[in-house]
Amino acid sequence: MRIRLEKRGKLLESGREAYPVGVPVTRTIPSVREQYEGLEADEATGDVVGVAGRVVFVRNTGKLCFATLQSGDGTRLQAMISLAKVGQEALDDWKALVDLGDHVFVRGEVISSRRGELSVMAEEWAMASKSLRPLPTLHHDLNEETRVRQRYLDLMVRDEAREVVHRRARIIQTVRQTLVEQGYVEIETPILQLIHGGAAARPFETHLNAFDQDMTLRIATELYLKRAVVGGIDRVFEIGRVFRNEGVDSTHSPEFTTLEAYEAYGDQFSMARRIQDIIMACADAVGMHRIETEDGTIDLTGEWRWLGVYPGLSEAVGREVTPETTAEELRAIAAEHDVVVNPAWDAEKLVVELFGEIVEPTLIDPTFVCDYPPSAQPLARPHRSEPGVIEAWDLIIGGMERGTAFSELIDPVIQRERLMAQSQLAAGGDVEAMQLDEEFLRALEHAAPPMGGLGLGIDRLIMLFTGLGIRETILFPLMKPE
């Protein structure tokens, strides 16, 4: 860094800039490569261009110097700096002042070198931005921790890192486009909220000085989106960040991106079709309909299975489990399968946890896990024909939950009872229980139409199509301070 700072100083002393406001670029590196990719060896085009890029390779040999310039998308182009073209002073300055990692500008004719390398034979060059730190070496400097913590370095040197960024953008655009084409309206809802609700999760707490009011960051977008449906926006969605003050691991991040969508006169079955449309459109966009994993091949093209929680758990443990099965019996099953449970959990909570530990990891192909006990989703309506369960499903792909949906509970009387029960749990010390939201209940009391709603974890969708952990799919994930 000391040597590079000295070079910066020499640039300034000579009246040049180390960080000019701009350089006279006339072409991008990708456009030059696209136009002249098939150029024969030792051929000239007569086309004079001005290009700029980051120096990722340099070889200074006598009267002719070579450098590889890289554009932001990773496309590379060779620059040749010749004594005959730029003169002794400019050549000496190049050798003395340019380092790996610098952004430089070169203007010259597009040619092909004797070895057939597409190049710009420089007539002039200029510093575009002096790098004070060296480029990392791919295998020595870039361990996983560094790649995630200093993502800009990862993007500089690894094509795979840049591809994840572009693939994520392509998938999110596809999700949005699929819903818009089906008549959905995208809206934005508050991130700062007075009441935390819409999911069972621990919120981040903050304080609004203007009102001297304690607030939380949203844990879900659900309750405001439903207000919009009450108001007459019959198909509505939001793609946005939500925040949950919980654990951090390969599948969980404190802040992550979700899609939530609600449809008047829909139900859990119409929302199942919606999420299948979305995921298949994303599969088309990235060209992946069969995904190879350590646990087997995921086939998105086949029939997506439906599996009830109680029948699925019964089959896995070899005995019948029903809504009438006692907590004591379920704790015995947990002990048999080495599943750690909380003694305070009731039967419904135990069933959900046992299913998640024993059955869910085995579900590789897309499976709608349905007919949950009521406490699993306090905002879902009772099943229309099956007693003791609700109309809700989780979509499991590759042994992991990717999305959820239900036929929404719109009866304000029952909803109040459910939220009261949640509020009592919160008063008893359950940090994940929802609070009683009187504004949401007031909206329901104005009559919400029957509706279906779905939630899709965008980051987990990216994980499906990249095979990466959540820290790799979020561009700048939250990290512990160094």
Automatic annotation (TrEMBL):
It is found in: Cytoplasm. The keyword Nucleotide-binding applies. GO terms for molecular function: ATP binding; lysine-tRNA ligase activity; magnesium ion binding; tRNA binding. Its main location: cytoplasm. InterPro entries: Aa-tRNA-synt_II, aa-tRNA-synth_II, aa-tRNA-synth_II/BPL/LPL, Lys-tRNA-ligase_II, Lys-tRNA-ligase_II_N, Lys-tRNA-synth_II_C, NA-bd_OB-fold, NA-bd_OB_tRNA. Its EC number is 6.1.1.6. Mg(2+) 1 binds at D394, E401. The keyword Nucleotide-binding applies. One of its GO terms (cellular component) is cytosol. Keywords: Aminoacyl-tRNA synthetase, ATP-binding, Cytoplasm, Ligase, Magnesium, Metal-binding, Nucleotide-binding, Protein biosynthesis. This is Lysine--tRNA ligase. It comes from Rothia santali. The gene is lysS.
